[in-house]
Queue: 3 jobs
Job 1
Amino acid sequence: MSKGRVEAFSDGVFAVIITFLVFNIKVPSLADLAALLSLIPVFLSYVLSFLYVGIYWNNHHHLFQAAEHVTGKILWANLHLLFWLSLAPFATSWMGQNHFSPTPVAAYGCILLFAGIAYFILSRSLVSHHGKDSKLAMSVGADRKGRLSIVIYLIAIPLAFVRTWAAYVLYVLVALMWLLPDRRIEKVLR
């Protein structure tokens, strides 16, 4: 099957997710600086989630640039990823509105964990379909960064109940690891 429709559909879902993220920031009823300061936790949650969704969109785009075609299995793996990412607005809002309370921060980490696992499954499905010697396989490699991200999430989730700020810092750390797209794909495609 052609990959064009899955790319177009995914781009639309990413756009909707990003749009819903900002809807969770309620406009203050007062027109002073103190009203804005009370929104800092909500805004910090929004920034992190916007960054994550942007990172997933960017890496998803690179991944599918290296792919030549897709199968039904790949379509389902892609939907699996989009499902977990579509929960980002809920988790972002819950975490921000509750000023980074332990349970919402841990739930946010669970969504990041399952999105990371889903992305790993998607990339492995694409590699499996295209073959071990394909450009895609060479560009994705062993995906150490993806595996490390999952390990960090597994540490951060229970940590949220002990040191909430430390769990949040680990989520930021993973985002920073992924901020720049994987240049291996671009090198292989050149």
Job 2
Amino acid sequence: MQTSPALRSFFSVRYDLIDTGSALPFDLFVNSSSLKEREKFVRIFPSGEALSSDDLENLRKKYLQIYIPEDQRSLYMKSLVQSDHREDKDKASVLKDSALEYLGRIFDGKREFSTELLEAGIEGCREVVENMVDLLGEYGIDDLRGLISNLSFHDFYTYDHSINVSMYSISIWKAAHPKAPRQDLVNIGLGGLLHDLGKVKIPTHILNNPGGLTEAEYEQIKQHPDFGLELLLSGHVKVHHTIDVNVIARIVHEHHENWDGTGYPTKKREEEIHPMARACTIADFFDAITTKRSYSQVMLVADAVGVMKKFRGVKLEPWLFDVFEKHVDYVKSDIRKDITLSHRFDPTIPWAQLPIEEVKALATADFGKIRVVTEKKK
């Protein structure tokens, strides 16, 4: 039994991202009301029928915007990803928009958080990641970097960052395990997308504050891996049967653990840390210092890899980092030897200015000394 349009929710789609000439797996609607509070969606084209290019052009001339029911979003995503007529950047943009929608529901402070809300959000995220794995296909880490650079960013750091970490985690795992089963890629992708799930219990003004955190606020934000673990393994959350919730929970809980045991929340070290969490840590680090935000500058790839190399065996697993580095295209001679990141750097914080430190290689007593490089106030 189909839900009445009055009780359904809808999302808008671009006309140029609707295929013609083959049966559509989703319905097309328009909003017949000009008043937001009195929206009235009317179906104008049914699923199962083929839309001609002339039909689509006529709809474009007649209606400013076209919509698909929210409960058919997964059908739309799948058909778009499988289409041979669309560019990958457009496919990735739609997947990102969908992920933003699901993450937004989970983190929506205006709604009362509930197990049902979390379950629905996780299921939506799973569908996004399933399509993400298909889209990335043979994409390498460097190809993915180019794809991500073409995507628009959102004002809430956690959303954009989580989506990027998901894609990088998938690519890093494929590079390290070329014959990895598809479900492993889905699990690590979902773990990457939900790696900061516990932030739902952290006040938004702390999460999205590029102005710097107090020690008390930082201690509060460091609790998010424990919060995420609790949310996933409380015994009440039901997920799709293909998802290994225990693996997802370990990625969520351990992505801030360091290879040398100096991380948080439990100071696990080396092999004690789940392999997928180690991959997520590299993805988390790389995206945080190379992806442009609205309020911060980023590092060039060569500098980013050079800085990350200094954390090889400290924060990052040596072997996995070597695999990652091998699959990133950069010129070694371009790496600046005189900079590193402070050990207080934490990808979970939306830094207004990365805590870059300059390595002074002058003479004797000053050799190896570091200082924080800050911009002069204008």
Job 3
Amino acid sequence: MIDRIKKYLIDGEGETLDYKQEISSASKIAKTMVSFANHKGGVLLVGVRDNRSIAGIRSEDEKYMLDLAASFYCKPEIELELEEHNIGGKVVLECTILEGELKPYSAKGEDGKWWVHIRNKDKSLLASKIVVDVLKRQSSNKGTLIKYGKNEEALLKYLEDNDRITLQQFRKMVNISKWRASKILVNLISAGVILNHTHEKTEFYTLV
């Protein structure tokens, strides 16, 4: 068990691992939880500083805050696996979140609204409408039937010659509505033909 925690400390934060020195806000930690549930799952190490040094948790308050976040600030509710580890006389809390079966998961923000978050490298980012639709499609277990029309062909031809394209570039290129362009992108992502790349500034798409 201790070897696993040491490996987490060596690996550093990433798509499936996040360090928290303490849990001060249930709504903030809920964002990380749903981003893991919407992705491949992940582990929260509580009692660890960003520089990978061990601070230890101070009390049962951390467990309470995690349970509160998972129960009342995540929709659907997220089930947690909690395990304590004593390392050098300090307690580190390992909180495992499995990939969710009821995507998309959303977190209640400080504005009282529910927002879907996804994991990108070591950050939990707000999901775009296209990503939310892809998560819904994945969760529905329905196959994706693609009809390759001129718009799909134009998009794939463009991506053969160029590294990436944005939603705005695509809809302008083929002169269609944002709704129609989004639907085409969702279909192609769900079918595994193109990839979406979510960044803090601009979301773009590439061939698989």
